[in-house]
Amino acid sequence: MSASRASASRPRRRWPTLPADAPVLLILDFPARPPGGPAQAAALRALAESIAQEPGLAWKIWTESAAEGRAGGVYLFESRAAAEACHRMHAERLGRAGVTGIEATYREINAPRSRITRAPLP
């Protein structure tokens, strides 16, 4: 029997299903303008204070790449539903500012292994 036929007959492994209320990472990345001085800094501070109040948010790490002209963040939410609600809010806010090309990625957390490696999980 050829190797390809042998591998085709093996059962496929499935990823374990995580609970619906498992923590979720949301990774947002989008085109950004260069820093705009004190007025923009004040607006971004107000935005950060608003994001800190998002239901289900554990934390956010702000990301920037001046070389690529992109910004975004890595967010940890208590659930997929909370992450999706925040994603919608940001997409609407950025869309009103004329920003397109928003990329969003969702990832479930393997909490037991992440705690071993000192992840800041709630």
What descriptors fit this protein?
122 residues; alpha+beta; 4-stranded antiparallel β-sheet; 36% helix
Plain-language structure description:
There is one protein chain. The chain has helices at residues 3-9, 38-51, 80-96, 111-116, and strands at residues 24-31, 57-65, 70-77, 103-108. By secondary structure, the protein is α+β, with helices and mostly antiparallel strands. The protein has a 4-stranded antiparallel sheet with strand order 2-3-1-4. A hairpin with a 4-residue loop joins strand 2 (57-65) and strand 3 (70-77). The radius of gyration is 19 Å and the shape is globular.
Structural class by sheet pairing and helices: alpha+beta
Report the radius of gyration as a whole number of Å. 19 Å
Low-confidence residue ranges: none
Shape: globular
What's the multimeric state?
single chain
Helicity level, as a percent range? Answer: 25-40%
Q: What is the CA–CA distance across the termini? A: 51 Å
Which helices and strands appear, and what pairs or packs with what?
Blueprint: H1 3-9, E1 24-31, H2 38-51, E2 57-65, E3 70-77, H3 80-96, E4 103-108, H4 111-116
Antiparallel strand pairs: 1-3, 1-4, 2-3
Offer a concise description of the structure.
By secondary structure, this protein is of the alpha+beta class. The protein has four helices and four strands; from the N terminus they run αβαββαβα.
